[in-house]
Amino acid sequence: MLHRNGWKCIPKAPEFKDSCGGTFSEIRGKIRSSTEPYSDCVWHIQVKPKYRVTLIFTKFDVSSEHGCNENYVEVLVGNKDSKGKFCGMKNPPPIISSSSGIITIHLHTDPNSVYFLPYFSAKYEASLKQPDRCYDKITGEGNITSPAFPKRYSSFLDCTWKISARKNQHVRLFFDVFDLEPTKQCLFDYVEIRDGRNKLSPLIGRYCGSRTPTANFTSSGRHMWVSFVSDNDGSGLGFLAYYFPVPIANKTPDTSTQQELIH
Ligand SMILES: [Ca+2]
């Protein structure tokens, strides 16, 4: 969660600056969009590559009439990996740059917009990358766990497992233990399961909290992608899941995962 002790123990961040864009290289800082009208503002957070950056929006009012096309904030990690265009009144989820020390924030406003000037404020924190290596390509059968399991997992994790089966096989996965920080819509800590070989594959489900997902997740093809993300504060015991290949003939669609994508 955002307002527990994680942010209280650190020295005061540099003062707010109302600005239309800029470059930030300090280890932490705060950004506030300009109160003057501009059509495009771009902020760059650029710290040393050995750091990862967590960006947290603290205020957000970017109303837009036509989806997120008229007014929006787009966040890119490493200059080109877009984490999405955000609009509306809700704070976007925390953005973690795990592979580089660069985050770019682009605020676009349409001068013809009927809404008041879009506005946001955000803060960021750079931390040394975790020694935990939690990226793996795996086959056959086995288990995957959150780092340090069964001890509580640490902050700022961004783990992925690409599980593959042989031709004419599917990947099946089920959870035995599950205890993640609970949040609405699983915005902060979560496990995501995707039907395919990468993070863009169709989402099977996104889970958090302490209710163990009961489904047997089965990929439609040979690959399943599992990711685990934790934010700056609030932890749990993590998870333990088992995976194994199943022949195509044994695949039974699991309808329970289709009803509720976020738990
Ligand atoms: Ca957390």
UniProtKB/TrEMBL annotation:
It comes from the Eukaryota. The keyword Disulfide bond applies. Residues 20-123, 124-246 form the CUB domain. Keywords: Disulfide bond, Repeat. The keyword Manganese does not apply. CDD domains: CUB. This is CUB domain-containing protein.
